[in-house]
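Q: Could you fold this chain for me?
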Amino acid sequence: MNQFLDGMIRAAKLDVNFYEQVEADKGAFGQAMAVVVLSSMAAGIGSVGQAGVVGIFTGTIMALVGWYVWAYLTYFIGTKFLAEPQTKADHGELLRTIGFSSSPGVIRILGIIPGLNAIVNIVAGIWMLVAMVVAVRQALDYSSTGRAVSVCIIGWIVQMVILVLFFSIFASSSV
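A: Sure. Below is the predicted structure, expressed as structure tokens.
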């Protein structure tokens, strides 16, 4: 447990060496998934005032699905469209590193304090995005941070389009 918490702290501190270790450690998949679950549960608990208790469950499921989709999109975009000559990665490497980049999201539990939800979510969102850029840069062996930022932004936009289409179809079929 200590090693797990230490890993989350190192990921939140944007420790490049830690992200390299996670990239190489095929056994860290479960831990990366646990980080995503903890982060999303923290967000759910933090938003209980707005989303209710059901928000914890649905938020956790959506975060896991989003993590997987974003990791796959990042893999595809980063290795097929924006690869550098030294880029070599597999989907698992991105699942592990991006999973740990969710570590700063545990602060979202502070959103349960009245009046703090919005600011905590903004801070956590920015921190998690910066951590993801570090994770992507390391997992895809990029020499350019700008390329990692581009991959993350393109992946986020594509993911949002997919989610909007999915929810549009789901919402129209349930009416």
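A (continued): Residues 2-173 form one domain.
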